[in-house]
Amino acid sequence: MSAGEEPRRIVHIDMDAFYASVEQRDNPDLRGKPVAVGGASKRGVVAAASYEARRFGVRSAMPSVTASRRCPDLIFVKPRFDVYRAVSAQIREIFARYTPLIEPLSLDEAYLDLTGRLRAGMTATATAAEIRAAILAETGLTASAGISYCKFLAKVASDQRKPNGQFVIPPEQGAVFIASLPVGRFHGVGPATAAKMKRLGIETGADLRAQSLEFLQARFGKSGRWYHDISRGIDRREVRADRIRKSIGAENTYFDDLHDLSAGQEALAPLAAKVWRHAERAAARGRTVTLKVKYTDFHQITRAHSLHRPVMNEAELLEIGQALLAGVMPDPRGVRLLGITLSGFGQKDNMFEGQLDLFE
Known about the structure:
This protein is an alpha+beta fold. Helices cover 37% and strands 21% of the residues. It folds into four domains: 10-16 and 82-172, Alpha-Beta Plaits; 25-80, MutS, DNA mismatch repair protein, domain I (3-Layer(aba) Sandwich); 175-230, DNA polymerase, domain 1 (Orthogonal Bundle); 247-358, Dna Ligase, domain 1, CATH 3.30.1490. The chain contains 13 helices and 13 strands. The strands form three sheets. A five-stranded mixed sheet has the order 5-6-1-7-8. Strands 11-10-12-9-13 form a five-stranded mixed sheet. A three-stranded mixed sheet has the order 3-2-4. The two termini are 30 Å apart.
C-alpha cells in the first residue's frame, strides 16, 4: 500500500473444523466427542478433526493409525462431500449479500473484498461479525474471520481467535505484527522451508525483513521476492472471483533414500491421498497426473499421463502415479523426493487459479 492510498478492506473467512462440525451438527450423538472425518483403515488419512480430537493432537493429513493411537476414543466418520459442497454453497450465498468479490480457497474458506462496499456506518470488522452471525443462524456452524488491508495478513488474522472469533490487523499495526510472527506461520512457508530459514538464522518476520532481496532470491529462488515483500507487509494480490486452479500437488523429501519400486509406490499412497482430499475439498476434477522424482544427486525428472476424462477417484490417481513411477524406478542413485500433481481442470469443475501448495 503506497502513501496516501486508501487501505483495502479484506476479510478472510475460515469455517471452524468444517467437515467435522457438519457431522456433529447432523448427528447429535457426535457432539462434544472427538471426531475424525476420514477412513479408519490402515492406509486411511484424517481429512478433518473436531476440536475435541485436536486436543489429543489429532490433525488433518495425519495417518488414521496415528490418530487412533493419540486418541483411543476417536470416532471415524466417512466424508460426505456432497453435503459439504451444499453447505459451502449456502455460505457463499451469504458472502454474496455483501460483495461480489469472493475468492474461495476451498469449500471452507474464502477471501472477501469489502473495499467500497460497506454499508453506511459499517466497518469491515462489524461486517465480518455480521457475516459470521448469519452463517451461524442459517447453517448452525461457526466461522472465524481475519480482517486486514491485504490477503496475507487477513489469512493470518483468521487463525488468531479460532474457533468462533475474529481478529483485525489495521495498516498501522501490520509491520509490528509481522515482525514478531514466526516464519512457520507465513503463508507459503512450509516445514521444510521454515527449517531451511532457521538454519540461516531466520525465525521471525523481523529476521526475514533484515535480509536483502538478493540474499533471499539466491537461497529461495522466485519465492525470495514473495518472502521479501510480505516481511514488509506488502501483498498487492487482488481478491479475484471465480479463479481457475491450475494444479493440486503434494510432495515429500525422505530421510532415508528410496531404492526399490515397491517402497516408492508405497510412499506415493499418502501423497495421492493428500492431493485427492484437497481436490474433493475444492470440488476440482483433473485429467492429468504428473509424477515428480528427485534423485540423490539432485537430478529431477517429471513424467505425466493425461486421460480423456477426469480422474475418477483416489485409487485411480494413485494407480497412474505408481505406473509412472514404474518407468523410472529402480534407479541406482536412489530417490530422495517424490511428488504427485493433479492438473487439467475444467472450468465447470472448480473456481480457482494457481497451484495449491501442499509440497512440504
